[in-house]
What we know:
Chain A contains twelve helices and four strands, in the order H-H-H-H-H-E-E-H-H-H-H-E-E-H-H-H. Chain A has helices spanning 25-39, 47-57, 60-72, 74-82, 84-92, 125-128, 133-136, 138-143, 148-154, 191-197, 200-204, 213-216, and strands at residues 101-106, 111-116, 164-169, 174-179. Chain A has 217 residues and is α/β, with parallel strands linked by helices. Chain A starts with 24 loop residues before the first helix and ends with a helix. In chain A, the strands form two sheets. A two-stranded parallel sheet of chain A has the order 1-4. In chain A, strands 2-3 form a two-stranded parallel ribbon. Residues 6-15 of chain A have low confidence and may be disordered. The relative contact order of chain A is 0.14. In chain B, helix 2 (32-46) runs parallel beside helix 5 (72-86) and helix 3 (52-60) packs across helix 5. Chain B has one domain (31-111): Nitrile hydratase, beta subunit (Cyclin A, domain 1), CATH 1.10.472. Chain B has six helices and no strands. Chain B has helices at residues 5-9, 32-46, 52-60, 64-69, 72-86, 92-111. Helices cover 62% and strands 0% of the residues of chain B. Classes of the chains: A alpha/beta (217), B mainly alpha (112). At the A-B interface, helix 1, helix 2, helix 7 and helix 8 of A face helix 2, helix 3, helix 5 and helix 6 of B.
Amino acid sequence: MAASPHEYEHDHPHAEVSDPNRPGYYDIMETAVRELLIEKKLIGADEIRRQIEVLDSRTPALGAKVVARAWVDPAFRTRLLTNGRAACEEEFGISLYDDTQLIVLENTDKVHNLIVCTLCSCYPRPVLGLPPDWYKAKPYRARAVTEPRAVLAEFGTILPDDVDVRVHDSTAMVRYLVLPRRPERTENLTEEELAALVTRDTMIGVVPVTLNREAAA
Amino acid sequence: MTGSEHLVTRLPNDIGGLPADRIEQADHELAPWEKRCHALADVLDFHKIINTEEKRCGVEALGAEMVAKLTYYERWIVAFSNILFRKGILSPTELATKMDEVDARWTSAEDK
């Protein structure tokens, strides 16, 4: 019963008046926990706001820059595949938390990588931001490890039979990022134009990078 | 065979390989409180109050019914509360009192 500090009920009839801004039970719980921790000086009053700014600054555009750089700079690509964490920190100033490793998985014409977190929702947040809802929900987590081709097909990705599909199950300490294949006929694109082709889902490994982003959507 | 072995060998979070429905490719913008909850998780981790693995474990400890019925960040904030109780950082009474206080801000605002 530790989960509910008490039954939370309103005994005032007017409390039922629906104010769309009125916070719900869990919203109130979050505010209460945060304020208590601040009162106890365990966290700083400004830290949550600053961390929200950090969260907002992390988007798949960061991962896309990393991918595009790896496509145009073979030395960086080698460093990225050797130690993803160090390469992202040195080249882009992207810092991971604690001792979390970042392992970058290169897709080729013979190997297709897919990332999942079967236990919860571990995700390469410093380079992709927050995971989409489907990544955190049961169907993807349950099925990706045993029927990856069926899962990929639901995203419209059909791979030839001779392509080896590898599924990587993330943990708190080990996060993965897929380095997708560079599409053909992109020799004349700039690094920035290449980065614009790279979407979140291509770096999770559920779809390939295509030249026409609208066609892929 | 007692039929209960699967409860021992598979904890609620351990769903890899289980049969499941089609993937609904849904996503939503986080509500402001959900984003604050995520930021709180990060800040708790920075201060070594609750780390990622403790959080995951705390969600698992909610049990299958709560894991199924609460939304993602609802599970997080309840797990944080439980972990903070267990560590003696907060007490259930303290949290209940503070929640009443937070709610009363809205009630008194509506009275005006």
